[in-house]
Write a structure and sequence with these properties.
alpha+beta
Length: 365
């Protein structure tokens, strides 16, 4: 007869004899497995796509659980891969991999951006998922996967971040001074715009007119230098007029001026397939910003159709790099039949104080 103490001792011996799991090595195996799925996207190989899965597994999405059979799903996936041109399959972060102490079970959590053309139509997904893997006959196999796709409001910040990878990132403390020679339907004019995260100042000479308009977190005003008339309570439409001329700040940080960005789809914008991001202005109206689908470069923006005079379309026509930041060099405004061009002759980063923003003196002579 084996005593209870002996049984306990034998159990301890059995446990102590189990080989120690090298979790880091197992994680690398799982990473390689997932990498083979990524590779299958570009190779257009549905068999390789599902090679890491067991013959059947559980698919968790859209509030339900479905059992998938590999034999039933390969043909449809192959058709999808054949029609899809992948431009990007990039991770949002490092995957999170957990391994059980005995090395028999694992989870893999990942998040990726998928961009490309499906049957020549632009497609963009921000996807996260978690797979459960089981060690079967010495190999890791996926036995279930749960998938989620980002909502439009969660997708917009990611597109803005992608845009910053090509334009450069403007720090919070930055100021911009932009001087432009402009041409309107009737005559040439000059525009000077100061921008910071919280303030904007616009000065414009147009024929015999000379005005200064200030919008900011603490003060807003307009000043007519010809009549010397000061208005310390400009309406929201005037503030939006100033914001609409901050072409450099809006091209780099539109979220500082407008709220609630969301991704609303794709449109053709002046010959480019474009992401469309919808913002809300201070009058609770839509503002549409456009980003090139191929490069994420900002293309321009539209003011809402309900503004006086109808929709205004702004196009960023050319760029110039300064200290790693892409700055608008030329731009156009189109409102109905009226066309305005802005040719920036001087753009300076980081030289302005709050006194400069509040000054009613003339910088334009």
């Amino acid at each position: 007869m084996i005593k209870k103490g002996s049984v306990f001792f034998l159990a301890l011996v059995f446990i102590s004899c189990q080989p120690k799991v090298d979790k880091e090595a197992e994680k690398e195996k799982i990473k390689s497995l997932i990498a083979s799925i990524d590779e299958a996207h570009f190779k257009k190989d549905a068999v390789q796509f599902y090679a890491p899965n067991t013959d059947s597994w559980y698919d968790i999405r859209d509030g339900g659980i479905r059992k998938r059979l590999k034999a039933d799903i390969i043909a449809g996936t192959q058709d999808y891969l054949d029609q899809m041109e992948f431009l990007e399959l990039s991770p949002q972060q490092e995957p999170i991999i957990e391994i059980s102490d005995d090395g028999s079970l694992a989870t893999y959590a990942g998040a990726v951006v998928v961009r490309g053309y499906l049957s020549k139509k632009p497609m963009f997904w921000v996807v996260s998922w978690q797979s459960v893997l089981k060690k079967l006959e010495g190999e890791w196999k996926i036995v279930s996967s749960a998938n989620t796709e980002a909502a439009p409001a969660a997708t917009a910040p990611l597109i803005l971040e992608k845009a910053r990878t090509v334009t450069g990132t403007l720090p919070d403390s930055t100021t911009i001074r932009a001087l432009a020679d402009c041409q309107g339907p009737e005559r040439p004019f000059t525009t000077l715009v100061f921008s910071s995260k919280s303030d904007a100042r616009m000065e414009q000479r147009y024929g015999e007119g000379h005005v200064v308009l200030k919008y900011g977190e603490n003060t807003s005003w307009t000043y007519n230098r010809i009549t010397q008339k000061l208005n310390e309570s400009p309406d929201d439409a005037t503030k939006l007029f100033v914001q609409g001329h901050e072409l450099h700040w809006l091209s780099l940080r539109p979220e500082d001026r407008f709220s609630q960005p969301k991704f609303v789809g794709f449109e053709e914008f002046e010959g480019h397939t474009a992401f469309v991001l919808e913002f809300t202005d201070m009058l609770n109206r839509r503002m549409l910003f456009y980003y090139d689908f191929e490069s994420y470069m900002p293309l321009g923006f539209d003011t809402p159709e309900e503004t006086p005079g109808g929709r205004v379309r702004v196009r960023f026509m050319a760029w110039e790099e300064q200290n790693g930041i892409q700055l608008v060099d030329t731009a156009t405004f189109q409102q109905g039949e009226e066309h305005f061009s802005y040719d920036f002759t001087s753009v300076q980063i980081g030289n302005l104080s709050q006194t400069d923003f509040e000054s009613k003196d003339a910088y334009l002579q």
